[in-house]
Amino acid sequence: MKLSCFRIYDWSYFFSFYLVLSFLSFSTLKSEEESSFDSDFWTSRIVDFFLSDSNGMTHWIRGIVLSADGKVLTLSDVFNGERKIKEVKRWDFRPVQYIGWIVKDPEKNFLLLQVEGKSLSALRIVSRESWPANGGNEFYIPVPTPEEPRRIAKYVPKEMPEKDNEHLFFTGPTASVLLGSPIINEKGQTIGIVDWIDIQNSLVRVRVLDGPLEILDKADRLVEFAFWQENLEAIRKKGEQNSLLSSSTQWRNLWQGTQKNEIEKSADILIQLYPKLDVAWAAASANYLRLSLWDKADFAARKAIAMNSSDYHYPVLFAQILIGRKEWNPAIDALLQAREEGALSKEIAYPLGICLYKIGQYEKAVEELKSYVENRPRHVSAWILMGEIYQKMHHWEQAISAFTKAARLNPQSIRAWVGMADSYRELSKWEQASEAYTELSLLEPTNGAVWYNLGLVLLKMEQEKFARACFMRVIELNPKDRDGWFNFGVLSQRAGERLVAMDAYKKAVNLDPDFGIGWFNLGCLYQELHLYPEAIEAWRKAEKSLPGDIRPLINLVFLENHLHDYSQRDKDLLKLEGMDPRLAQQIRFKMATMNR
What is the extent of the structural domain holding 562? Predict the structure, then answer.
């Protein structure tokens, strides 16, 4: 990107200063804005339940109620025995509206609230590095109250004798705190979820969450493979209906075995014992697939299809094998066959969209994915893939729409925010792009590429002071970033900090001695500081590193004329004349006028 030149002496008309533009090519996701999406999007609100269990104990617990059907999706605690709801109290985090669900990780036994506010992710789960400056000593936990607005209690961190990398401890009022509550820092960012309360010592323990959030990613992966699991389960259930097959030891070992050799052996014996049962071949293929035994899985699936071509679960299984081997066209044929036999869009549209994308059939891929998200609108990866395809088609507005939906579903999705930023940049919507890159800087505060791109976007917005700060962050994170040093130098020079700029340019050319633009700008700065021998040396190196570029030669000619080094000036003029005779003639005329 060319920056406006500095005018230093008459010959400075030819001096130019440049900013290295190097936007990273992030993949992005996008989709068309369907009018029905937002109206169908599940909204929900936080609910506190006053429950009585089978032992007569009463508890306040916290959950989310989906407004779509009023069903409680999950609660923030689990009780044994019968639960009886005695009282229900509803409230919202103002101005935040809950649009997702609470995700419960059975391994770690904690919950996540997914929310949406005016900025898509009003409550962010962020890494510790982006907590407020100066320690961020005050934190807050919303507590239930029948009045509006809700009451928020204040907490301070407490050091514990034993180190615990997964938890933080806070002191403050505990009487009304509920498990599953978010704890919020001074920036309004969620840093963790309350998972243990010590009322007697006024102590709460918080499970620390780092972004990108692993729980939402895990949930998305489960959705992504749901259609495969459903298909394999349908094959297993079909086999269970055959009493002869389901009663055999090999059948039980096939599905219940844990050792690779045991499962493979059971599958081998099963098709030897029941070679005329199509479901035996399909079940064997499914388990060969579990073990990544591609050739055996392929052969068994083909046998099942040949014996029973009307069961669409078999070609879906065969497609899964082909996709695993990256055989996209045969996989498409298998999925289309499954559709002819009665497979639904929710079962095949997503893998079909992937295959069509892989072979460059972008419009057809988008149509399949649109059909898929009608049935599974919460699948983040599907929206992202759709956005990537729209990017390939240069449909940037549709791409932004898809990335926005992905970010609503998972505000911690790096790919969604990168996609939005990239697409806004393509449309020259610099303010929106800067907001997306800022979001990324919260999620990945040590990613130099994010700060680099944010600096370039801020430069487009003529926010040079903030852009310079971004490039300073780049070189702090990676002192060997040549372009980071160069751009920091350009903006320092424009800010009048010449010595800082000189040091930055020197760092850039030391990192890459063949960096022609770096030498060129360093020469311009030397000339501005009247360090003429150094300027000449820098421009000579720029000339050598930029073959065919006439700018260093032009600057050399004018500086040599200024220094009355006419012999060297004439030699360089001859070089310039060989490259651009007309320009050389204009320069001769200008210098003749200047020297009178």
Answer: 548-595
